[in-house]
Amino acid sequence: MSNLITPRTLRGFRDFLPEVMIPRERLIETAKQVYRSYGFVPIDTPALEYSEILCGKGSEETDRQMFRFDHGKHDVAMRFDLTVPLARFVAQNANELGMPFKRYHIAPVWRGERPQAGRYREFIQCDFDTIGTRSIASDIETGLVIYDLMRAIGFEKFSIRVNNRKVLNGLLEKSGLAESSVPVLRALDKLPKIGREAVAKEMQESTSATESQVDEILKLAEVKGSNEEILKQLEPLCVGNELAEEGLSQLRAVVEAANTVGITDANLQVDVSIARGLDYYTGTIYETFLDDLPTIGSVCSGGRYDNLAQLYTKQELPGIGASLGLDRLLAAMQTLEMLPATRTTADVMIVQFSKDHLQSYLTMASQLRAAGIKTEVFPDAKKLNQQFKYADRRGFDAVLIAGDDELAAKKVQVKWLSDGSQTELSTEGGSLELINFLGNKLFESQDDNSLGQRVWDGVKWVWKKLW
RNA sequence: GUGGCUGUAGCUCAAUUGGUUAGAGUACUGGAUUGUGAUUCCAGGGGUUGGGGGUUCAAGUCCCCUCAGCCACCCCA
Question: Structurally, how many domains does chain A consist of?
Fold first, then answer.
């Protein structure tokens, strides 16, 4: 017996225990509901693709991060995001899909990065994209989806930072730095982190930019204030450059539309320093930070691109999309103690008083389930205190007790674990009285009309609507 | 991929600085309690001190390698 294999997982890969998996599934369910509420439809693609598909862009960085290997005669790789597979997917299926095409895709991706808190080698991305339109309406909608997502998950204090690459690129053009836009933007992105001096230094070291050119760009750093004030200050900087002016008007359109639907400056801010993301962004860009935990980084980001699938088709496919960082968000929610300590997926547990009554318990359970109340029957006729302890530790809302006396009288005791209150109810007529009682208690929180409550407990809400 | 910090029971930490059989709290299983989840008391299971090698009469403790986690780069969700 000494040659047992040590159970272990690869660096950056992890197991998920029920108490982690339950909120994880809830989060995914929430994201799907928000996406569907805008008409996005689901797709899926393979985890493995031909390397030439995934490496097409050929950036050394993504190459280094990709899990890649030979399988027989084929050079294959695991997808490191969902956008490149989407490009291939759309190029291959464009005729059947029709444009515009709005899809969501929730699936794992793999990157050979060095792991850190909230950063893993296998993680889930929750992407949504709108392909085949240049309309500003899609840029606006993308911001609204991000807002609804964050609210539905339960956040109120978050900042969606919005910017437009055209503003940045226009300003670079204006100051004669169009050639070295990538290193300049990369440095600019670090502005809030390392400060103006260090950014200026990095720009001069990594490009041929002169001090005055760098100064010109870093004027952006001085742009501060409310969204309205920032837009005003940008005007003189952009004037005279067609690209920058176009970007500015798009930025203004996004902000104004968001304000119209009630999103305030508290949750959406113009931030001219955000530039990040892959080189292919060409218009509106979004980043989302948690006010209470900004160090975790962006939890939802994306932007507009001119031509998604140019590597795979001659058809020009513009689009915009964003991605929710589910694992990072979950890590943040854990440190912010936003996750309930539930280790069960059921609402109530039926105590097994004696195995002779198993039939009665199973009948009661299926009546409850048919009414939408998730019910578990304890498998053994163990001592009551042990069954109660189990129910308590797992986080059931209520325990149902029916011994000889109750069953003879067609009754059941309902004990509410949060306050210890106990109520005797009738099980006659298909347990209607019991179901009504449990339904009212379990779903009363649904009177809360916030989007978060509605979507978070979507299933319960639907149940109540039908009832 | 580069540089650094850390690693003792499921979790949080002890172990007189190299000295005998690695302890405690908590969690888990059972009992006290054959109709009721806090608490209390009792008992039990659980460790090749992350893994391998070396120095030494003697290693959880010192050295090397390796694995994993974390931090800063890189990049990004």
Answer: 2
Averaged over A382-397, what is the pLDDT? 90
**Within window 29-48 on A, which residues have Cβ closer than 7 Å to strand B?**
none
pLDDT in tens, A309-324: 888 888 899 999 999 9
Integer Cα distance of A268 and A264 in angstroms = 6
Residue showing tokens 């962006």: A298
Q: Where residue A373 sits, what CATH number does that domain have?
A: 3.40.50.800
HEC-encoded secondary structure of A85-104 = HHHHHHHHHHHHHCCCEEEE
Residues A312 and A405 in one domain: no
Closest to A334 measured CA to CA, from A118, A83, A114, A111: A118
Can you give the CATH number for the domain in which A329 is found? 3.30.930.10
Q: Distance between CA A415 and CA A422 in Å, rounded?
A: 4
Same domain, A331 and A352: no
The separation, in Å, between residue A435 CA and nucleotide B17 C1' comes to 66
* Burial class for A270, CB neighbours closer than 10 Å (0-12, 13-18, 19+): buried
Measured CA A8 to C1' B66 distance, in angstroms: 15
Mean local confidence (pLDDT), A91-97: 91
Provide, in whole angstroms, the distance separating residue A1's CA from nucleotide B20's C1': 29
CA of A391 to C1' of B30 (A): 18
- Closest nucleotide (C1' vs CA) to A384 is B36
What was the pLDDT predicted at A458? 42
